[in-house]
Specification:
The complex is a heterodimer of chains A (116) and B (373). Chain A is an alpha+beta fold and 116 residues long. Chain A has a single domain, classed as Dimeric alpha+beta barrel (Alpha-Beta Plaits). Chain A contains 3 helices and 6 strands; from the N terminus they run E-H-H-E-E-E-E-H-E. Chain A has a 4-stranded antiparallel beta sheet with strand order 2-5-1-6. In chain A, strands 3-4 form a two-stranded antiparallel ribbon. In chain A, strand 3 and strand 4 form a beta hairpin. The radius of gyration of chain A is 16 Å and the shape is flat. Among the domains of chain B are: 58 residues, no CATH class; 91 residues, Arc Repressor Mutant, subunit A (Orthogonal Bundle); 85 residues, Alpha Horseshoe (Serine Threonine Protein Phosphatase 5, Tetratricopeptide repeat). Helix content of chain B is 69%, strand content 0%. Chain B contains 18 helices and no strands. The longest helix of chain B is centred in the N-terminal third of the chain and has 31 residues. The chains are: A alpha+beta (116), B mainly alpha (373). Chains A and B meet through helix 3 of A and loops of B.
Chain lengths: 116, 373
Amino acid sequence: MKYVLLFCGTPEDAAAFEALTPEALRQRYGEVGRWFQEHAAKILYSDQLQPPTTATTVRHAWAGGEPVVTDGPFMEAKEGIGGYASIEVADLDEALRMARTWPGRGTVEIRPAVAR
Amino acid sequence: MRILDDFSAAEEIVQDALLIALEQWPRAGIPDSPRAWLQTVARRRAIDRVRREARYREKLAELDRPILQQPDNRLELIFLCCHPALAPEAQIALTLRAVCGMTTREIASAFLVSESTVAQRILRARKKIGAAGIPYALPRADELDGRLGQVLAVLYLLFNEGYLTSGGASADRRDVVQDAAWLAALLTSLFPLEPEPMGLLALMRLHMARASARFDAAGELVLLRDQDRRRWDQRAIGEAIALISRAAALHRPGPYQLQAAIAACHAEASAWQTTDWPQILILYDLLMRHGPSPVVRLNRAVALRHVVSAEAALSEVQTLAAELDGYHLFHAIYADLLVEVGQHELARAAELRALTLTHNPAEQSLLRRRMVS
């Protein structure tokens, strides 16, 4: 089954990240790098995303017509998406195992992809 | 030696590599770098051996914590219904429906919600299971503790719901308490070497042993301190305590074993006045190590009141005010302590708050009676 792991964070998570010393930052990236290596066989694709402030949103109304382009992320929520990994694993428990060991802190959402 | 931890294994591997060399080199010729060749072979065999040993150790671990499977996959079903990816109300509804065979109507009446609510919860849960790929399988050995704890939590929730609403039971309502206890017993038979299911079962049985003293002739709730202990089922209490000992012999303490031990302290006291409160306080301190939840701290404060003083208990309880503001028992206990230290105005306010927070008619009646006296 295919899932997307969405790596999210609140403004507090972002602040805590900014406050990391260069040494701690290096260590964090090291942990994350190792996590990606460990699960390489299951990860189809992944990207780290630039912060939500760099987002642009295109909103399509159900009534149709010209879509509206705005600055900023689509979500009103405080959490922002910092990255994602598209994975292929046997079931949700395997996806959970990966998400549980994610060293990047914050919140990981596991969304099943629509089967094609 | 870097791959293998033990020297004798390393020696064996080197010998293996030499034996292979003795076999192959006469035929294939001596390699350009015999030393490098030997090292490569030895390294490969070491890795193989580690892999085989890891699988062997996994198998051994399984023997240490045997899970006896039901021929009808009931255990897989329980783990599926109690999967953490499902909402708690859904876990309960699904467990009662799929494992206990309750109808949606019976579930609805047990939890005081509409039938359509129950039907919806079950339907959504089934959809989530399919869409999100929740597996129908036993958890891995290294995940067993967490998943088993999850199942036990569902069973305890079930039990508590049934236990509290049983006061207003109608003739044709299925006894949720019996189902929860049956499931707990099933788990102990399927996990013969797991102490926590035993702890939960003992806890449930101790509560049930006091069932006939919980309500008076008029159907009103009777507090533990006022219960007629002659009406307690001593045989059931004895069995529960034996179960706690069996669990303790496995040397893996846990929250349900501790809660059972606390309930056993109450069950063993011939009267409220002879309750071993110091022992109960020690047990709560141990329970705190497994998770200092505000409810545990609240119950510990009750023990503190008997071991130290009402004032000491009061200051502890006051620290919980924010977290437990929505919990009716917090306000009831708070009121009790306030009365003891003579703060009757505040006590009354707390009692009123408690009253607004519980929907159980027997509890409401109890609170009202206390306010009058």
